[in-house]
Amino acid sequence: MKSSIRLQWLYSLLFLLLLGFSSALYWQGLDGSFILDDEHNITEIKNFDDHSLSEDMSRYVFSGEAGALGRPISLLSFALQFHNIHNVFAFKYVNLCIHLLIATCIFWLLIKITRLLAWDTHKSLFIALLSTALWLLSPIQVSTVLYVVQRMAQLSVLFTVIGLLCFVQGRTVLAQGKLRQGYLWASIGMFVAGIFAIFSKENGILLILYVLVLELTLFHKIPEPKFWKLWKTIFVYSPLLIIIAYFMFVANVLSGYEIRPFSLTERLLTESRILLDYLRDTFLPQPQSFTIFHDDYVISKNLITPFSTLPAVIIICSTLVIAWLWRKKIPVLSFAILWFFAGHALESTFLALMLYFEHRNYLAILGFLFAFSCLLFYLYSIIQKKILKIFMVVASGVWLLLLSFISYLEVGLWNNPVLQAVYWAEKHPYSGYAQSHAAAFMGDNGRPEEALKYYAHMLEVFPESSSHYIFWLNLHCAYPRIEPPEQKVMLAHFKQSQDDFGLGNGLNLLVSTHVEQLCPHISRQKIEEILGVLLDNPNINITHTLLYLQLGRLFAYHSEYLKAAAMIEKGTAYPMPNRAQAQTMQVYWLAQGRAFDQALALAKN
Questions:
Q1: 430, 435, 433, 427: which is closest to 452 by C-alpha?
Q2: I need a surface site. Which of 39, 54, 391, 570 has the fewest CB within 10 A?
């Protein structure tokens, strides 16, 4: 008993030291600036008014567009920091605190799992500590912690782990014969924590799969209490069937593929390679090889293009078969495999999302880290020679320090956003997002000549893209000394160029600067010519409706309200994001143009 208590105090101290070391590791990355999606999702809170604070917060929290459910829990966490809107350090500091809190919950969760499996105290604590250390210090986690908007992923994981803690506590109590208390704990975990996880980010629904993986693997020998099958039917199987039915019969999962450069089949084939890349970067990461830009990742066109696709598909399918067949014989291995794939069941499968994001591994890699820790403990216990034991301990320690050092290098990049943007652009010359991100940072930091070099590079590497000339024009607006692109050459390009995601943002900025009279050296006629040519381009699909909206804004600014309303009418013939907002603008413009009957009729609809 005394030995067990000493071990608990020792590992508690080691865990506190681990949290302190992790804090020191990440501290240098807490400075910097908001980037990319941070601006869209967070900076609206700078407009909060103390006199209408509750209304402003409520409107912000329940008007989210980042996901299907709006992610109000995550937005609330941002809104509560409205007084820190100009202090990026404060936002990143909260992200770091959440990271450490999740690590604490993971450490606790793994201890409870191993105790339920009746593992001895030393084995339980060692494996829990090592698994948590690997999770905390892995360089693949850095962008999730320091990219402010990824707090959405963090909070979803936090509530998922809390839900798992409640579930395992319930399972433990049920094993002691306390049915009412046990079912209460398990149900709270699945329902309450699950709701919070889902409304932080939609993939909180994966809590169901994580519970199912635990039941199929590590917990398969634990006796099932009375009413257990009924409970699983209510809280696991039924929700799972509802989700499957939703994606099969309600959600149009193929609708997003028209704006992607890959099909559903190509996505699934490519993800097989990406999943293996995630595991490689978890266990054998390369220094400063991580980034949030992966749009240059080579798409698998078929099983042999590129050739690495076929081996990846074979490995994925084989491991899944092994995990299922050996789930009772080698439950730890099956747990690792099935946990990883459960974590990627939404974002790395059929949904028309971007192909590659490191934050998708935030919780998914835990299963493999747990299995690896179990393997190290097992090998150490069976090795007889002392020299081999010492070598194993030293090698493991060096590897853990190496992971920490690579994380330290990654964190250092987040401390200097300009250097980070330049480095990412150099490492990914065929990433349009990386190039435009670097160009934007150069422009924002008073270095337009360097920004122009990136746009010139993009025109060379992506000659079919539409947005680069628009970005160049916006650079000219901000810095008149930068010569604008030749109008005839630009219009000839727009007649046959391809659509891309940057076009809508670039045009919105261009029209906004004109409306706000910030760019007098680009005439209305020039902007109208650009919009007209793009509207006649049959390749422009994604941005078609936004072109009409921008043309409407241009007409409205020059008091041609009926023409502006007509542009909205044309735009609504196409799929339109924020249709209600666009129609509100149409009503307003009709009223301004004194077409009151039309405005009233549209308002009633």
A1: 435
A2: 54
Residue range 206-256, pLDDT digits in tens = 999 999 999 999 999 998 899 999 999 999 999 999 999 988 888 787 777
User: How many angstroms separate the CA atoms of 117 and 524, rounded?
Assistant: 72
One-letter identity of residue 5: I
What's the CA gap between 246 and 240, in Å, rounded?
10
One-letter identity of residue 486: E
Phi–psi pair at 476, nearest 5 degrees: -65, -40
Residue with the two structure tokens 């946990």: 339
DSSP-derived secondary structure letter, 351? S
C-alpha distance from residue 101 to each of 22, 107, 207, 357 (Å) = 12, 10, 18, 23
Residue identified by tokens 């009957």 is 597
What are the residues whose beta carbons fall under 8 Å from the beta carbon of 336, sequence distance 6 or more? Answer: 367, 368, 370, 371, 372
Q: What DSSP element (H or E) covers 426?
A: helix 417-427
- Give per-residue pLDDT as tens, 579-599: 666 777 778 778 888 877 777
Residues 6 or more apart in contact with residue 114 via CB below 8 angstroms? 123, 124, 127, 128
User: What are the boundaries of each domain within the chain?
Assistant: 256-382, 419-604
306 upstream amide cis, omega within 30 of 0: yes
Least Cα distance to 550 among 522, 575, 513 occurs for 513
Sign of CA dihedral 261, 263, 266, 271: positive
The two three-digit tokens of residue 406, written as one number: 């690579």
Q: Which residues of 56-75 are buried (b: 16+ CB within 10 A; e: fewer)?
A: bbeebbeebebbeebbbbbb
| pLDDT tens digits, 553-577 | 888 888 888 888 888 777 766 655 5
Adjacent-strand bridge partners of 302: 305
Contact criterion met (CB below 8 Å) for 589 and 562? yes
Q: 419-604 in CATH: which number?
A: 1.25.40
Provide the 3-class DSSP secondary structure of residue 593: coil
Q: Which of 542, 552, 539, 544 is nearest to 583 (CA)?
A: 552
Nearest to 192 by CA among 222, 225, 229, 160: 160
Give which of 156, 148, 159 is closest to 71, Cα–Cα. 156
pTM assigned to the model: 0.90
Considering only CA atoms, which of 168, 160, 194, 153 is closest in space to residue 108?
A: 168
Q: Identify which has the larger pLDDT, 587 or 493.
A: 493
